[in-house]
Amino acid sequence: MTTIDKSGVSVEEIIRNFRREHNISDHELKYEIIKKPNKGFFGLFANKLALVRFQLPENADRVRLFTETLLNKMGISFGSILTKTEGRTLYLTIEGIVETGFIIGKNGSMLETIQYFINRVFENERNIERIYLDADGYRERRESQFISKFIPQINRIKTQGKPLTLDPMSAGERRIIHRHIEKDRGLRTLTIGEGENKRIVIFSAKQKESEVLKQSEAKPASKKPEGETTDKPERPRRPRRAPRPQIKADASVEAATQAQAPADKTDTATLKPRAPRKPYNRNRRPRPKPEVPAGDDK
Fold first, then answer.
1. pLDDT of res. 10
2. Confidence at residue 228, expressed as pLDDT on a 0 to 100 scale
3. pTM
4. Angle between helices 138-147 and 171-182 (to 10 degrees)
5. CATH T-level assignment (fold) for domain 145-230
């Protein structure tokens, strides 16, 4: 742990600022109050500043403490948690588990969920790139069984120098390949393809990614967390319906419909076209009114 001394007007303000600066939770906070602020006697010999000494845990200790608190809240009994750091990768191993089957889950589903949650909590830490979680050596045994069938092909890359493109795999299986190749400085990995099942290209560290992509004739996948899909599922097309057959009306049916037509309906073919109406002339003179004799006016 790293020791850091902080001073301020009040102890509460010092602790609040320290937590905000280092992004520390309550279960990680360890401090000791060295000096408290006092007003002195009649304003003499006053100590207006407080001094607090903090114990800042390392990144590995912070992840370990968080994992211990998480497992205790889940009601899982265990012995201890061992930490191991390789570069920016942190390995956690839970030992002495009472109920191993519960924490591992079916095909390691529960262990994968806890590992994903821990990585999301510490994803903003600069010194930690990824965190791997294991329980009583389960992941190590599973990875050794899975990687054993690829070892002859991987060794062939070192002798021939040609890149190897593996078949599409799930996100968990790709992580096993990446983790195994990371230990070998002479090899590198590249993820290509789109969708849930992407492929991994293993090639020599002396080669460039552009050359490997040309040889594999594929484009690199978008940089997203393993397991996320970018392709939308295609909707199945509906089969085209056959056109409905046109049924010709029977002669008897047509005769019956014509008989039911109203008798007073005139045939439009016999009507003469209407003469066009003359346009109205505003300038025409009004007709004179007839003169009426004076005696006839009543």
1. 82
2. 42
3. 0.51
4. 90
5. Ribosomal Protein S8; Chain: A, domain 1 (3.30.1370)
